[in-house]
Sequence to fold (428 residues):
Amino acid sequence: MLGARVPNTVLRVEKHPGPRTYDFPSGIYFWRDRVGLYGIEIAEQAVGDGRECFPAKDELGNADRAFRSTQGKPELLVSRPAQQIQIVACLRWLCEFNILPCIPQQQPVSYEDLSQLALVPEGHLRRVCRMLISAKFLEETASTHVGHTALSYAFVNNFALSDGLAFLTETIVPASLKMVEASKSFDKADRSPYSAAFGTSTSFTDQALPHGRLSRQFDHFMRCIANDTGNGLLSILRRLNINGDKEALAVDVSCTSLTIVRTLAVLHPRLSFVAQFAKEPPPTDGKALPESLAPRIQCLLQSNPEKQPIRNASTYILFLQSIDTNDAAVSRKVLNCIKAHADILRCNSDAKLVILAATSPAAEVDWHKHMAHMCRFQLSHDVPLDRLELRGILDEALRNIPGLCLAGMTVSENGDFCIYEIASIGLA
Fold:
């Protein structure tokens, strides 16, 4: 369920013989009774009417509780998603016809007036609204009038929520339903669930880049569903030992951004860096790099990824951020990189090649990461690698290149990043 922060408001709790009102700080909350999740409210703590009330982030972050509650009731695995699908479909309908901005914030409006204003059939409008009223997203003050809740009004003030919802219904849902077709054609590099859904050989990445609307919707959608602060990458880079923090040179190979070298430059003030860009490097002005870091970072265009002209570095880093192609392309990239640095590693006692990879999360980590991972997989856009598959690729590459071995491996706490260090056999 999409969420948003909303202004301070009240939680209205229905308890016979009549409603009670409680004042609480802001936040979006779900309420549930003994059976399961039933509605959405605004509050900050549990209320004493027999229903638990807890934050949306806590409920979503503990979705496994809802799953465990289906034990012995397998039909709930169908009925609950069906309910959510209908809620999302109805909410998308309201957003498409701009219904929510037509409802005054503080007073209800009749279905008749609202249908005439939005130019939609009144019967359709009433059915859609009542589905959302049953989920506590809207409220019906009389059988003929509908009004806002604080949650529904959040969609009026926050356009990013409508953007995220549009991307979910128009792009993610069609792509997610084509995973079977994509798996049947797994040997084709351009056959992703996204391409199967939309009948195109163009990747989502190439589709989104020239179209600002699609790219914007994707960013807003990922912000809605992901619970990622970027701490995983920072924590794994903190554990990377580069020449014992002595003065040295580190090279970021085939990079697409300054993220890695910029982070490492902050962590290791005595190191210098070269960022070798596969495509045109960005300008190294104050916008790309802070003044304190710019003197220690040099950006170059990598003319030939199969040859490494810089031979005096202590550490060479290849960041495998995603697989926008098939596994064979990843294997070639890793193999070419190891070959390009093989002689340097054999001859330089201080040198090592670091394969840093974003990997698919471990089974026990927060479900947000798994959902974000599946969405990226369905789009074939910035998809983390499978750690076991990557290890197999590295083992195969090292079998074909004499004199080198896997000298070390580090995995982040959540399993979302890993580091493989490759060095000379005699020096490992």
About this structure: The first helix runs from residue 56 to 61.
